[in-house]
Amino acid sequence: YFFYFLLFFVPRNLFYYLNRALNLTIGNINKVYCSNACFSKIKIKDIIFDVYLSKNNYQAHLVYKDLIKRKKFYEASQITCLKSIYDFEKYIVFADLGSFVGYFSFYFSILTEQKNKIFSIESNKSHCDSIEKGLKKNNLNNIEMLNAILSDKKEELYIIHILKSLKNLKI
């Protein structure tokens, strides 16, 4: 992957030739990782769930594909922190902002045995589709998926949909 990173610093007229040579030498990463849509099984200690990886989502395939075979899990520090917070306070509402394919939402849902309300907020429609497929595959019903965009402006914002849902929440 280091070689592909270096391509960003190559003059434009040489880029095509170097990229082609790298693909012939070490293989085309996009073909290896993104040739098919699939579910990837995730196992974090005793918590097991599937995330959906769409066909051309290179980043998702690179991060989540074959984690079990590699005996790893993604974002260990965030998972540890999330587990510690839950161990300290059982009844929390969790908002996964920028959910991508739903990894943290699915993990927290199963960790809490689907007892806590979870909002999975993602601005990219294709990632939302992946989350929806993951929700069905994992049979999770405590996650509310929102296709919404958050702002980088410094101002007071309200997510009305979440506030309405919280009003009816009983925990």
Structure description:
It contains 8 helices and 5 strands, in the order αααββααβαβαβα. It has 171 residues and is an alpha/beta fold. The strands form 2 sheets. A 3-stranded parallel sheet has the order 3-4-5, with helices on one face. Strands 1-2 form a two-stranded antiparallel ribbon. A hairpin with a 2-residue loop joins β1 and β2 (47-53). It starts with a helix and ends with a helix.
Largest sheet: 3 strands, parallel
Per the principal axes of the C-alpha atoms, what is the gross shape?
Answer: globular
The amount of helix comes to 40-55%
Structural class: alpha/beta
Integer-rounded radius of gyration: 19 Å
Order of helical and strand elements:
HHHEEHHEHEHEH
**Average pLDDT, all residues:** 76
Strand order of the largest sheet: 3-4-5
Distance between the termini: 46 Å
Instruction: Determine the strand fraction and express it as a percent band.
Output: 15-25%
Count of individual helical segments = 8
pLDDT under 50 segments (min length 5)?
Answer: 1-8, 25-34
Write a brief structural summary.
The protein is an alpha/beta fold. The protein has helices at 2-6, 12-26, 29-34, 58-64, 76-88, 103-111, 125-138, 160-167; strands at residues 38-44, 47-53, 94-97, 118-122, 143-147.
Key structural traits:
171 residues, 5 strands, three-stranded parallel sheet, 8 helices, single chain, two-stranded antiparallel sheet, disordered N terminus, alpha/beta
